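Reopening this one. Same input as before:
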Amino acid sequence: MQKILLALLAIVYSTSGFSQSIGIGTTTPNNSAILDVSSTNKGILLPRMTTGQRDAIASPVTGLTIFNLDDQCTDVFDGAFWIKNCGFKQTDSVTVPANSWMQLSNIGGPARNKGVGFSIGNKGYVGAGVGLSGFLNDFWEFDPATGIWTQKAGFAQLPRADAVGFSIQNKGYIGTGWNAGPRKDFWEYDPAANNWVQKADFGGTGRENAVGFSIGNKGYIGTGFDGANPTNDFWEFDPASNIWTQKTNFFLARYDAVGFSIAGKGYLGTGNNNNDFYEYDPLLNSWSPKASLGGIGRSAAVGFSIGNKGYLGLGNNLSDGALNDLWEYDPVANSWIQKTNFPGTARFDAIGFSIGSKGYAGTGGSFSYSADLWEYRSNSFQAPSFASSFSPPISVGQITDGIWTKSFLVNQPAITTTGFVGININDPRFSFDAKGPLRLRSLGTTRTAGIWLNNNTNTDTTLFMGMLDDNTGGFYGSGNWRWVVNAATGNTGIGTTNPSARLHVAGTTYLNGNVGIATVSASAPLHVTGNTILNGNVGIGALIPVFPISFSASAGDKISLAGNTAGAPHYGFGIQGGLLQIHSNAIGSDIAFGYGTSSSFTETMRIKGNSNVGIGTAAPATRLDVAGLNNWDLSNTEGDFRVGTGTYRIKMGVALDGGGAGAGRIRAAGGINTLYLGAGNTDVLTLFSNGNATLTGTLTQNSDARMKSNIHLLQSSLQNIRELNGYTYNWMDETKDTGVQIGVLAQEVQKVYPQLVKQNDKGELSVNYTGLIPVLLEGIKEQQQQIDELKKLVEQLLKK
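Same output, byte for byte:
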């Protein structure tokens, strides 16, 4: 055996002079190694010895390595000290729970928002957006197996924000977006070649904040903002033919919506502070409404799908600001379930994608830029549980020649490779993650117990959570205690440090959501059992109420008087499209006005569900049905307008100098189709159904010279009159007067006096007969002048 070892050493020493590599278990040793050992069922044994035996080694050389039997560590001599490398050993496995988040390594490149994210195979891709330096076009690949980001070829040629991205089979696609205007160019990324190729421009107008997803081997883009208006057109892209085809428009124009696909169907919803949700069927090319998102309406949210479920969360609400909730959509049940909130800071304009059974969300911000990435696990899985490989034989504080690791034993502090610290848990997910109660102690009279929280840039201690005094704790910021609780009394104060009631609010109050007072089951924005007195303004969905009761400025239902099913018809008030609505729950329900109480009510006016309106009657039979006294009253006991009396269909009285109705009137006599206009009890003008009219007095027209300008004497009236003829005729319309009429023809009058002829919208001509009087006067005068001249001529002839 000794001879074999000597021979092996001789080979090692002899080959080293030729700088060759020796392989054990391999015929192709790596050129960078002097000795390359390869095996799939055996390992290498280092010299094994105790600490005492290690220390007895005479003049150890730098790099000398042994396995220490005392603590199961590998010891390496650095020329002065033994460096102790003690790893972790797997003792068991733990179950990482479903519906949980874990922070991963930050994305490659700068922090950003309004970027693009998608996955190809088992890799994720993030790029574009806007950061502190402006618009971005860098592009990064993420490997979830290693947690490593690798920079790839920059996206296209023009940086941009608010673009659309998705993948089809083994290629990625990015298009549209904004940079110096809305974009419509479209690009394909090949991860194998790591290059971009421009494809056919998007089929619609250039736009930003659109929605994109893929179904099978086709891509889809729709909605968005084209620089002037929200859009609702929807387009399909076929990468095989490089052609865009317009599909059925989405229901409502919008931007900043969310889209993803599940099992051959597309889904699109939210945006513009909405929470509605719709399904697209590419086979039928049709949209259908689905259950609205369980959370509040929002814009710029994140969406992705895992298996047969969809996920939607984060985003921005006009009233609540940045959000961090997450919701799961089941297309089979058509229902939403709230999941664990996103643990990072609330944000919008983030990116989202999924790889296998995990979802990913990151970047974005709340008017800021972020670079973090978080992994969402919809299902539980087994992860190894580690324990320290040794127990220190002496106090840790006495160790000077080794680097010691923290143990992952339960009930002992645990530190992950990412720097997360766990107390009573072996898989911490945050910088400090503890199970069980924590206690913070004060520094006597100088400092109370609590925690200071910095702002995002770590330039200021913005918020303090801790004790105000021995009995009161809460939140302190900007020089004042903002919210406190008195442990002795149970009173809570907002805006005051001395609360005198269970809830004591000093200043304006803003409530969003259902609030119960004296009830544990609030079913409305404000659900109060018992009497309530409010002093000041109350806001429901309104951040700064300026009226006794103020609602948010968004459209939708505001007050429900009866009916508690969300989205169902009910009695109440709402706003939609700039229209104030008062609505009942069905077409058979009416709206009534009157006086008294609900149990003792006297009705004065009613609007029927069929649109009929009744005044003085609860059963209007026509669009306007006004009931009243049966006599025309001039003694100020009835109103100035009446419809449907015993004698007349319509009566209208005009009050004169504060007197009663009757100074003027319009009436229609029942049964003879005649309309009368009069004053007092006298009919002055009668209009008959055949078109005739009778005036009981004299008709005069304004003709004062002081009211006229550009006055000229008529010329050639006699000549023009010769162009006119008088006729007898009958009306062709049988509803008019059937007797023989006398008059002129409008067409003849129009030729000589067009200003006396008017034409209605049917092309029918009418003649101003009164206007013919001045013409006749001047014609007579001209004729009389001719007669006078003839008389003089006759007299002269007779004298001769």
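So the earlier flakiness isn't reproducible anymore. For the record, Residues 265 and 281 are 5 Å apart (CA to CA).
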